Amino acid sequence: MNIFPFQAALAASPLPAPLSAPLPAPLLRAQDVSIDYASGAGSVRATHQVSFDVYEGDRFVLLGPSGCGKSTLLKAVGGFVQPTSGGLLLRGRRIVKPGPDRIVVFQEFDQLPPWKTVRQNVMFPLLAGGVKKKEAQARALHWLDKVGLARFADAYPHTLSGGMKARVAIARALAMQPDILLMDEPFAALDALTRRRMQEELQALWEEVGFTMLFVTHSIEEALVVGNRILLLSPHPGRVRAEIDSHRFGLASSGSEAFQAAAQRIHRLLFGDAQPAAPDRESAAGEPAAVAVQA
Ligand SMILES: Nc1ncnc2c1ncn2[C@@H]1O[C@H](COP(=O)(O)OP(=O)(O)O)[C@@H](O)[C@H]1O
Ligand SMILES: [Mg+2]
Q: Can you tell me which atom of ligand 1 is nearest the CA of 44?
């Protein structure tokens, strides 16, 4: 069990653990976030009292079946949707609107305006944010090079494959140097082999650049491959079912017995009737905010 690496260090220490563990401040904190949508005369609750902390450098995954509020939570972090109750804090400040410190990469390929070249697509939000043209151009080329698309800077999106379009979207997002990269099923529309390749490239890019990301998926395998921490959500309304540590899994281990066992365990936690193990983390209200399991 190792939600926080620091807790593991404390547990191994011969000294008694202090009452309040010296955790760093989270980059992003979701605190009892409930979100309702207006629906006809009434409202639909999309998420119910969801809490989680994302630390700098995390690859934090929101995992759950369709309708469990993953996209809603990501939109709320993006500042596009406001919580009905609870709060979202970035570096301790409440999120109230979209900002360049949080950039979203969506699943849809049509997120790239087709009349702009690849380079212009990457430059566009930089210019809109007030970056000078020369600097925007340099940054665009730098990030296109990082995702292996330097040769395609002057191509138009319709000439690119799905995987290449996804790379452009990632380059465009990282060129903005956000505090956190928000990804909503960015590879879901890709064929299996391209999807795998993109997961691999994302991992390599993360190792090289070291950004923080919040990644949404409904694929258990993708969550284990991409994430170092996974929040499991159940639907109607979206609630936290468990939080697991998945840092030791990656593409290299995806065929292993341990990986398969972790995947089965997640499946049971998401879809089984059995209640997860004892609460490990308490919310401010004293209710279990998340349950940790050894994946
Ligand atoms: N704009 C909306 N208006 C009304 N209900 C919505 C809206 N968006 C999502 N919902 C509802 O909120 C719940 C969570 O949706 P969503 O966040 O899209 O889940 P997920 O991304 O996990 O599939 C679902 O029941 C969905 O029908
Ligand atoms: Mg969704």
A: 5
For β-strands 229-234 and 59-63, DSSP reports them as parallel
Using a 6 Å cutoff on CB, does residue 67 contact ligand 1? yes
- Is the shortest distance between the CB of 44 and ligand 1 below 6 Å? yes
246-288 pLDDT per residue, tens: 999 988 898 899 999 999 999 999 998 655 544 434 333 333 3
Task: Tell me the per-residue pLDDT of 187-205, one tens digit each, with 9 for 90 and over.
Answer: 998 999 999 999 999 999 9
H-type alpha helices, the chain: 5-12, 70-78, 118-128, 133-146, 162-175, 192-209, 220-226, 257-271
Distance from the first to the final alpha carbon of the chain: 8
Distances (CA, A) of 60 to 29, 135, 238: 12, 31, 17
Q: Which two tokens stand for residue 160?
A: 């690119």
d(CA 78, CA 47): 16
This prediction has a pTM of 0.86
Give the position, in ligand 1's atom list, of the atom nearest the Cα of 236.
25
**In Å, what is the CA distance from 202 to each residue of 164, 196, 260?**
13, 10, 22
Q: Which residues have CB less than 5 Å away from ligand 2 (the ion)?
A: 71
Could you tell me the two tokens for 179? 């505090």
- Regarding the beta carbon of 42 and ligand 1, being less than 6 Å apart is answered no
Alpha carbons within 13 angstroms on the beta-carbon side of residue 242 total: 22
